[in-house]
Amino acid sequence: MAVIEVTDLRKSYADLNVLDGVSFSVEEGEIFGILGPNGTGKTTTVECVEGLRRPDSGSIRIFGLDPVKDARKVRELIGVQLQQTQLPETIKVWEALDLYASFYADPRDWRELLEEWGLADKRNARFGKLSGGQKQRLFIALALVGNPKVAFLDELTTGLDPQARRTTWELVKRVRASGVTVVLVSHFMDEVEELCDRVAVFNRGKVVAVDTPAGLVGGEHRMRFTLMAGDASGVAGLEDLPEVIEVSREGNRVVVTGRGDFATAVTAHLARHHVLVSDLRIDKRTLDDAFAALTGRSFE
């Protein structure tokens, strides 16, 4: 069941076309990723869905409600962690949760959220004294204090160290496990691959693909190796193997792209033709590769 449906969303500022016909849907209970480089319309799209911005045209429905016309009802259904979320440096953790709880008709008990998100011992700590990871825990708790059915998390791990990022990923999984649908905005490939059930890939204000991370990446792999001294004429025949998609060569460096058990087929072919190689490495196709294939440009 789709809890969010976005159809032909458009938004411009003066001569700048920010959103150009964006469409996607989010299913109940999934972690749905919105992926793309900075400046591709991700945050604008989410802010329109949340009702924080008014689109020029198009349709948005959250549980069948319009986020502009039915703003009050929608606010009771969603929790939001904005990209630029900040709190006063001197506000205490419990004060922030108590304040946010007051915005909702039927909020969670924020004392339970303190325990649930490992903030009980920071109850009286001031926001400015929290570590980056602790601040992210607080932001997630604030997004959940209203008992939402959908949580929007925008660039949640920007600026965190690797350990704090992975800890935050586990928190996002816990949000989904609690029965909340998650919309995760990110420009980190590894984050999307780790967390998301499906992904909408943005490029220059458009959605260029919606699929699972595995579906976007596909089953392609690359084998790289260096030719050693001797007859390397057998390399030419690699392109005829059914598992091989492409062979490229620059000097003694060879890159073979293939699918399935292509590595076995390639190594067997090289052995039959007595081709000696070194520095052999097999790389899985990445989301960066998929983005480049979809858009014709690198992920920046």
UniProtKB/TrEMBL annotation:
One of its GO terms (cellular component) is plasma membrane. It holds the Pfam family ABC_tran. Residues 4-229 form the ABC transporter domain. GO terms for biological process: response to antibiotic. The keyword Nucleotide-binding applies. It is found in: Cell membrane. Its main location: membrane. PROSITE patterns: ABC_TRANSPORTER_1, ABC_TRANSPORTER_2. Keywords: Antibiotic resistance, ATP-binding, Cell membrane, Membrane, Nucleotide-binding, Translocase, Transport. It is a peripheral membrane protein. GO terms for molecular function: ATP binding; ATP hydrolysis activity. This is Multidrug ABC transporter ATP-binding protein. It comes from Planobispora siamensis.
